[in-house]
Each structure stands twice: as C-alpha cells, then as structure tokens.
C-alpha cells in the first residue's frame, strides 16, 4: 500500500480522493490546496505517490510537478485532469509525471492507475530513464489529436520501457491515436521488441489506433514475426518509407 499526498484546490475533491484511497488501503500522509503547499508537503513527507490537480491558484500542477522533480527525480506524480486539459496532460507526462486520471474520478480509475504506477516502480528491471540534458531517446508530439512518437537513437531495453510507459499514459484518453516513426532508428533486441508489441496490444484493447512508419526490411520482418496481427502486406498498420 502507498503513502499518498493529495493535491487539489477543491476540498470536496480532496475528501472524495481520501475516502476512495483509504478504502483501498492506502495512507494519506497530507493534503495541499495549491502547488506551493504541494512542494512543501512533499519535502516534509516524501510520499510514495502524489495525486496532483492541474489547475490550482498560486502555483498550478505543472509548476509544482517541476519543483517536486527537481527535489526528487524519482517522485511518482499522477496528474488529475479535466477532459479539456489534454494538452496539459501531455506536457505533464513529457515532463516526468508517471500517469494521469481524467475526471470524473471513480474508485476503479484511481486504484487502477495507482496500482499500475506502484507496480512499475517496484520492478527492478523496468526503471524509467530520466532524460539527461537536451538529448532524449524519443520525443512525443501532439499533432491534431494524434500522438507522434519519433526516435533519436536505437532503443535499448530501458529506453523501450521508458517509451512504452510514456505512451501507456495516453490510453486513458478516448480512442487514442498513436504513430510510431521508425524512419531512422529502431528497437534493438528481441526482449525490447516483445515489450513494444505488448504496447500495441494494449492500444488495441483500449480501442485506440496506431500506425507504424518504418524503412528497414529486416526490422519489418522482425516486427511482423513478433506480431502476426499486423498486416504482413503492410496495407493497414505499417507504412513503408521510401
């Protein structure tokens, strides 16, 4: 069970979250009504999880996320967002938030996301890589509702896990659309490729759509051998780049 800091400017929302989380067996170490309080309470309590509202007075959730991650790069922050704040959710995930929950909140949504974040963190192998400097292994852009994933290097296992984890955050949106662009770089080892195919299956099961752009014939063969649900004639999901 997790020690949790709840951050929301609505006392009603904090009470609802507290009731749900306590019912699930978690401990509420503190509450905060704005980003400034959140940062101070994080420094005092060092919780396992922070649930962070995006829109708050004085300091919003995005700025609070930044300060908390400066204090503790391993902080596990889950963003709480309204449906019309998708662009801010994307920014938060790109900046280091571990996951997010779209309002209206339900016990099932909350416990599923928290369990997911906690299980990722206890895995010794699946450590999420923190970007260093300006160099990032991959980048995600929002292009008119579709999330475009491009790669700046060939992905090793830890970087594949990082990419998979980031993309999984979008699967709580309605009918997410994701494009993977393997024009220049690829996934290196078979374990990483298996991880990627697992992500494709999760996109399918969430009623999302995906497309894959690639060029290397060897990588095409490896991918289709790993996932026989991809159209091997490349008519549906996979686009060959000339």
Key traits:
242 residues, alpha/beta, Rossmann fold, Transcription Regulator spoIIAA, 2 domains, five-stranded parallel sheet, five-stranded mixed sheet, 8 helices, 10 strands, elongated
Main sheet: which strands, in order across?
A: 2-1-3-4-5
Q: Residue share in helices?
A: 40-55%
Taking pLDDT < 50 over at least 5 consecutive residues as the criterion, the unreliable ranges are 121-134
Count of discrete domains: 2
Strand residue percentage: 15-25%
Named at the architecture level, the CATH assignment of the largest domain is 3-Layer(aba) Sandwich
CATH topology of the largest domain: Rossmann fold
Helical run tally: 8
Order of helices and strands: EHEHEHEHEHEEHEHEHE
Radius of gyration: 19 Å
Give the biggest sheet.
Answer: 5 strands, parallel
Distance between the termini: 51 Å
Average per-residue pLDDT, rounded, comes to 83
Structural class by secondary-structure content: alpha/beta
What's the CATH C level of the largest domain? Alpha Beta
Number of strands: 10
Shape: elongated
CATH level-4 homologous superfamily of the largest domain: Response regulator
